[in-house]
Amino acid sequence: MSLTLENLPDHLLLEHCRAGTEAAFNVLFRRYFNKLYQFSLKFLKDEVIAESLVLDLLLQLWQKSDQLDNSIEIAPYLFTAMKNKVLNHVRKNYLKTLPLDDVENHCLTAISADGELEARELASVYQSMVKKLSPQRRKVFQMSREQDMTHKEIAAELQLSVNTVENHISASIRFLRQNLKDHTDIAFVLACYLYI
Fold first, then answer.
1. Which domains does the chain carry?
2. d(C-alpha 101, C-alpha 103), whole Å
3. What is the pLDDT of residue 171?
4. What residues contact 76, with CB distance under 8 A and at least 6 apart?
5. Could you tell me if residue 134 is left (phi over 0), alpha (psi between -120 and 50 degrees) or otherwise beta?
6. Contacts with 72 (C-beta within 8 Å, 6 or more apart), sequence order
7. What is the distance between the alpha carbons of residues 53 and 56, in angstroms, rounded to a whole number?
8. Between the N and C ends of the chain, which has fewer C-beta atoms within 10 Å?
9. 10-residue block means of pLDDT along the chain (196 residues)?
10. What is the pLDDT of residue 120?
């Protein structure tokens, strides 16, 4: 039976999962485990955590397969759910992950052409919000996050106190979090990026 299941499209495998066919779930598991694992590992940089989150997601798929809409497309559903799991993990643990440029690059290449367009749009929204910072605050924030300068280096170059630099960066982060909270994908970038 598993030989014929291997050739079935995702939506038919999901129907078999709804009927309790474990072999169908095993096919979906093999089909998506490594892709989801590689996707989450790019952001988490921790093999154990990445594997744990993927296993958790796929177990939920099996347990809740009877609750999923018949018209659902498995790949976008799984990658969106995986992204949310990674985001939740990062939020809870304040993990330091990739620099913003690397996160944007991974977002652009991780899923599909549609994913690329969405990632570009989200990066554009983020950049437009950075431009809304006051000129001094924006300069300090960009020197810290884009030029990877320390607070002390920024203070010396701009002839400010280190405390003033820290205040500018904290205020910038608060502003971005507040104004980008409705953009889950950008919140993900910020969670990865702003705690560094």
1. 2-93 (1.10.1740.10), 100-193 (1.10.10.10)
2. 5
3. 86
4. none
5. beta
6. 11, 14
7. 5
8. N
9. 73 87 89 90 85 90 83 85 85 52 49 49 72 90 80 91 88 77 52 43
10. 59
Cα 122 to Cα 110: distance, rounded to the nearest angstrom: 15
Q: How far does CA 56 lie from the centroid of its chain? A: 17
Q: What is the pLDDT at residue 164?
A: 92
Distance set, CA 57 to CA 33, 72, 77, 94, 103 (Å) = 10, 16, 11, 21, 22
Distance between CA 53 and CA 84 in Å, rounded? 10
The per-residue pLDDT for 112 is 45
C-alpha span between 86 and 95 (Å, rounded) = 10
Instruction: Report residue 74 as tokens.
Output: 């498995």
Rounded to whole angstroms, how far apart are CA atoms 64 and 130? 40
The number of beta carbons lying within 10 Å of the beta carbon of residue 16 is 19
